[in-house]
Amino acid sequence: MAKILFRCSLLVTFLVFGLTTDTYGITEVPATPYYSAYNITFTDVTLDHFRFQSNTTFPLRYVYNLQSAEVGSSKNTPLFVLVGCEATITTFFEAAGFVSTTLRKQFGAAVLGVEHRYFGASTPFGDQSFTEDHIPYLTVEQALADYVEVIQMFKNAHGLQDSPVVTFGGSYCGLLSSYMRMRYPWLVDGAIASAAPYRGFVGTDEPYAYFQALTEDYRNYNPQCETVLRTGIQSLKNFFTLTPGEFTDVSQQLNLCKPLSKALEVSDMYGWISSALLSLALFDYPYKLEMPANPLNVACERAMASESTTSLPSGANSRFLSDDGLQNNVDNVKPVLDAVNVFYNRTETNTCNDIYSLDEFGSLDTTAWAYISGTSFLLDITTNGVTDMFWDLPLDLKPRKELLEKKLGFPITQRPDWLPNNFGGRN
After folding, report:
1. What is the helix, strand, coil percentage profile of the chain, to 5?
2. Residue 143 vs residues 2, 83, 116, 306, 363: alpha-carbon distances, Å
3. What pTM was computed for the model?
4. How far is CA 344 from CA 108, 221, 275, 305, 350, in A?
5. What confidence category does residue 32 fall into, taking pLDDT thresholds of 50, 70 and 90?
């Protein structure tokens, strides 16, 4: 369910940096109160690391900071590597200030961030990267081999040949960080894996742990916050049986950009809400980026503040107003929308709630993530509505496969055993 906060256009990147096939400029990004200055550039990496019929390459983006490093092959300056995953590497580098600033200064380290192939500005075939012929190059193993090439290149280019390497990552990045240590121990001396979902693969015995922990995040801030959100999310299920006229009234009261018209769209709305609540916890940084500092706390405060301040819009249908049960359901959902708009309305310019504003296939980044998470990175992370505040939704891989195939336009194969069999994780 992971979703992406920020987008980066490949075309704009090429225009800004003036890239050619063999020359890549370096762009300096100035420091802000929230992250240190860093440099952005590209290097050519092998398109297919596991075949020997071609030496085709493509430009992969990486970022770095050498402000605290003592370079030279005889030095032991540590090299901290942020492995890229399901978003732009600039996003992760800026968000990971604890590594790129705090730990860098403490250990006198060089810091390198390498973008995951097919994300951000590192799409091998541009907007044609997701055709049936080109998408097979998007695998975990190919991405890990990219990191190896870039780390070796970077060490040689900056006099860091003797530097110990430590990789860092969280969630999917955390898995990749640990995989680097397991697969390439001769290169990677240590790995930090935060919230890596080893116990989340299909076939493990903890499918509810993830969303239980997510619910506890909201409860730990304030138990009332969890209660308000849980009540609203459960009340949403009552919209499945609305009549056409009631759909119109509900949509008006909830200020939806596109009115609900059928039960399936209630599920879409649930997905829109749950994705935001997940992202608010995942990106709950104590400093302001695109969202305010501690966005989960802000979302809770808004939900609790709006719990008792709901009001009816002018022109609402009188038949609807007489239905106290339905009105209560709407009033319960409103605070949830106030909470998720901390995520969706970061610019505070939205005039209505667009439940399709987070289209899973709306950009190259999200298409890449949908492919990985729908083929090999298959997690049994589900909800039960008891230990968590969400709906009771058992695992069903078939709809995910069908949706992915519909959007891509060609068949795919799901292999839930591939990564745990190759890297471990079930026991």
Report:
1. 45, 10, 40
2. 19, 9, 6, 45, 20
3. 0.81
4. 38, 21, 10, 18, 9
5. confident
